[in-house]
Structure formats: structure tokens, C-alpha cells
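Field log, afternoon session.

UNIT: design team B
ACTIVITY: writing a sequence onto a fixed backbone
BACKBONE:
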């Protein structure tokens, strides 16, 4: 079997066993996960592990999240084809690529300039042309393109960052790990229900690297 075919077979198995067999139901999310080659977002020496359901190191002490949690968080954003979405924590660019297959436009911010540059280059090479990458402190959002229909944060914050809440449209959703320590969090969804009101829900316990910055640690 050729490398490309075996990766496609492993990707199908991931969708079946780790996503569809669990609680991922949004067909647009399952289709996006079936399209994006996760092996292109992990270091060469980790490629054989690309479709296992766990996070992998991507350098600079950071990780690409496990496929299940990427699918779960994407579904929790309730993304639609017309949406503009902001992601904080570009990392490898994988979650941004998944989102870009579902929504109109993705903006993504990464604190570590080398990771931002590598992700930008990778996403261009793969032909994803509806994603903009910024190197900077995403705990403050990306005010230039606000408001966003959905914002996803892929690093753990001590509290819900006010800047992000205020960059949501009315009806917009923020999905973010929040917790009192740098290693254990509760995945929260905050929905903006009016100019000044937000509804909060707890989704599940998660373990993410910390969100640093002005509204992070
Ligand atoms: N979404 C990524 C992917 O698909 O590969 C995984 C992200 S990794 C779990 C979390 C990322 O958040 C790291 O790359 C880290 O550098 C970044 N990060 C932490 N604090 C940040 C901040 N204030 N602004 C932007 N990125 C931040």
C-alpha cells in the first residue's frame, strides 16, 4: 500500500472509531476531519502516529491537540458556512484547517512567532486560502476583524477573557478551557445573548497547555 493510501485508510479509521463512534454528530465536522491530512501538521518523525487519538509534540513545548478534542470543540462552536471564526492558539494550524473547511473565513493568532510562520506556510502549501495567521497575544483577540460568529481558544485560561467576549457577535459562541491551574481546565461555552449578557455552560473536563498573555496566565 502506498503512503498516501495508508494515511487515508488511517484517517477513515480515526473518523469511525474515535469520532463517529463517540459523540461527534455534526456531519460538516466529520467531513472536514475526513478531508484534512493531519500527517501534514505533525513533525516528520511523528507522522506514523498522526491518526492516533492523542496530542503530539510540535516543538517549542507545544502540542497539536488530539483529534477527538478538535472535533468536539469544533462541533461545540456550532459553526455554519457563513461564519467568520477566530481561533486563539494556531499551533500547527490543524484546527484552523478543519474550521476553514466548514466556515467562510478563519482568523487565527499564535503567540510563538516561529509556530505562526510555520503554520502560515503549511496552510498556504496545502491550499487553504480562507485562513489568516497573526503572530501575537491572542488573549486580547484580533480586534481588526471583529466581531466573530465564533471564537475558539486552544489553550487554558485562568478566566474568560473579556476582550474575547466583547469580540463576539450577538448570538456568537466562545469555546475555551478555563481553570484555576495551568494544567487542568473545564471546557466552557459562553454565548453572547445581547450586547451586555452572556450565557455560560460547562462542557467537559480537559487538559490544555496554558494561555499566556494579558488576559491569560
Ligand atoms: N490549535 C492547535 C493545533 O491545531 O495545532 C493546537 C494548539 S496548542 C494546544 C496551544 C497553542 O496556544 C500553542 O501553540 C501556544 O503557543 C498558543 N498560545 C498560548 N498562549 C497564547 C496567546 N496568548 N496567544 C496566542 N497563542 C497562544
Amino acid at each position: 500500500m502506498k503512503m498516501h493510501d495508508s494515511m487515508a485508510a488511517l484517517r477513515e479509521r480515526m473518523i469511525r472509531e474515535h469520532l463517529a463512534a463517540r459523540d461527534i454528530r455534526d456531519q460538516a465536522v466529520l467531513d472536514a476531519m475526513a478531508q484534512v491530512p493531519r500527517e501534514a501538521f505533525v513533525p516528520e518523525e511523528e507522522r506514523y502516529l498522526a491518526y492516533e487519538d492523542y496530542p503530539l509534540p510540535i516543538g517549542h513545548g507545544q502540542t497539536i491537540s488530539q483529534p477527538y478534542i478538535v472535533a468536539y470543540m469544533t462541533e461545540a462552536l456550532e459553526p455554519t458556512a457563513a461564519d467568520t471564526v477566530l481561533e486563539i492558539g494556531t499551533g500547527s494550524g490543524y484546527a484552523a484547517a478543519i474550521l476553514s473547511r466548514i466556515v467562510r473565513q478563519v482568523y487565527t493568532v499564535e503567540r510563538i512567532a516561529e509556530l505562526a510562520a510555520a503554520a502560515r506556510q503549511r496552510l498556504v502549501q496545502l491550499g487553504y486560502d480562507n485562513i489568516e495567521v497573526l503572530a501575537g497575544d491572542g488573549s486580547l483577540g484580533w480586534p481588526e476583524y471583529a466581531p466573530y460568529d465564533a471564537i475558539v481558544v486552544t489553550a487554558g485560561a485562568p478566566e474568560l477573557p473579556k476582550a474575547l467576549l466583547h469580540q463576539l457577535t450577538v448570538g456568537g459562541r466562545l469555546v475555551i478551557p478555563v481553570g484555576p491551574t495551568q494544567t487542568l481546565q473545564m471546557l466552557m461555552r459562553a454565548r453572547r445573548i445581547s450586547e451586555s449578557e452572556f450565557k455560560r455552560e460547562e462542557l467537559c473536563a480537559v487538559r490544555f497547555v496554558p494561555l499566556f498573555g494579558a488576559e491569560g496566565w
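LOG NOTE: The helical segments are 3-20, 27-35, 67-76, 94-100, 113-125, 162-165.
NEXT ACTIVITY: expression trials, pending approval
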